[in-house]
Each structure stands twice: as C-alpha cells, then as structure tokens.
Hints:
alpha+beta; two-stranded antiparallel sheet; two-stranded parallel ribbon; 6 helices; about 20% strand; Transposase_1; Histone-lysine N-methyltransferase SETMAR; RNaseH_sf
Amino acid sequence: xxxxxxxxxxxxxxDILLKGESVNADRxxxxxxxxxxxxxxxxxxxxxxxxxxxxxxxxxxxxRTKEWLExxxxxxxxxxxxxxxxxxxGFHLFGPLKRGKKFEDxxxxxxxxxxxxxxx
Length: 120
C-alpha cells in the first residue's frame, strides 16, 4: 500500500507498507511522525498555519491517533469510507500510475512508485 501526503505545492511524503504489514494506530502514528518531520523540512510555514488531513480508516480514528492529532493541533476533514467519489489523491496523484503496466514482483512495483514520486 502506498500512502501519499501532499498539499497544493506538491507531494510531501510517500509511505509504503510492504506485503504482510498492516496499518494500525501505532503504525499510522509513526507515519504521522515522519510526515511531521517532512513538513518541518519542506514546508515549515505549514506547521505554523495549520495542518489539515483527510482520512477515514479505523487506524485514523483510534484513540492513540486522536491523541497524536490533538497534541500537534492538526485538523481532520473526513472522506466517507467506501465513498463512490475518488479521494483527491486517487485522482490527481495516482492516475498517471494507472497505465495497465504489469509488474514482475513487489520490488519492481515499489521502485516504479518511488521513481514516480521523485519525478512528478
């Protein structure tokens, strides 16, 4: 699973979950820590003006995650689970990757995603 965090200026963080790994509140909070450090490096003004995330999965709404978000005063915009509408990332960011290419293995897929993230 690839998760991309982005704003109007472009991509901020790519987080890849390998086969066999799962997302839970602890793993999601680790990702949020990496995001916070990436924002600090790439968009320092964003931390002062406020961060707003759009998410909806169970790890995103767990008590530990809510405490993390409250500690750093990050706001949430929800996107209904199983919504027929595409999430903005699904349309704007991942659209160019969906060209029907077949990958030999997970490593080739991850390499393609990382290359795309750097170039786009």
